Amino acid sequence: MSFPSTRSLIPILLIGALTTLSCGEGDPVPVEGQTLRLKLDEYRIMPQDVRVEAGRLRIVATNVGRLTHNVKIVREDPDDSEAPPEEIGGTRSTQPGESAAVTFEDLEPGTYRLACTIANHDDLGQYGDLVVEESGGK
């Protein structure tokens, strides 16, 4: 059994390190205006982490996957990890190729969770963060 030389392993290790670094979490994607457009598939919400201004927000979610999906906004109590999350609202469930919209008239500043609430989609990675900032806070 022969092992690759150290010299031949360097490019492989470098590619692995760069791939790992590029997959790290970054800042939430800022959304201009009052409409947040999301794409849903197995098992992602894209973009995953977004930042919007407080107030009116319309979410349009398009199912680009092969399974049924939805997106809900959920608020968790940071002071009580045992408290169940509060569902603020969200879209109806959509079939592949369909879009659904929901409008929040006065979304308050805070950090919310975006999640698909069908079966275990959230557990499989179909979630994200919605950061709502005071108007002019970008």
Number of E-state strands = 10
What is the strand content? 35-45%
Tally of individual domains: 1
Under CATH, the homologous superfamily reads: Cupredoxins -  blue copper proteins
Which series of helices and strands comes N to C?
A: HEEEEEEEEEE
- General form: globular
Q: Do you know the CATH topology?
A: Immunoglobulin-like
Strand order in the sheet with the most strands = 1-4-10-9-6-7
**Which CATH-level-2 architecture?**
Sandwich
Rounded mean pLDDT score: 84
End-to-end separation in angstroms reads: 58 Å
Main CATH class: Mainly Beta
How can the largest sheet be summarized? 6 strands, mixed
CA-atom Rg in angstroms: 19 Å
The helix count comes to 1
Share of helix, binned:
10-25%
Q: Which structural class do the helices and strands define?
A: mainly beta
Q: Unreliable segments (pLDDT under 50, ≥5 consecutive)?
A: 9-24
Protein described:
It is a single chain. The protein is mostly beta strands. Helices cover 12% and strands 41% of the residues. It has a six-stranded mixed beta sheet with strand order 1-4-10-9-6-7, with no helix packed on it. The protein has a four-stranded mixed beta sheet with strand order 3-2-5-8, with no helix packed on it. The chain is globular and about 35 Å long.
Main attributes of the structure:
138 residues, mainly beta, Immunoglobulin-like, six-stranded mixed sheet, four-stranded mixed sheet, 1 helix, 10 strands, globular
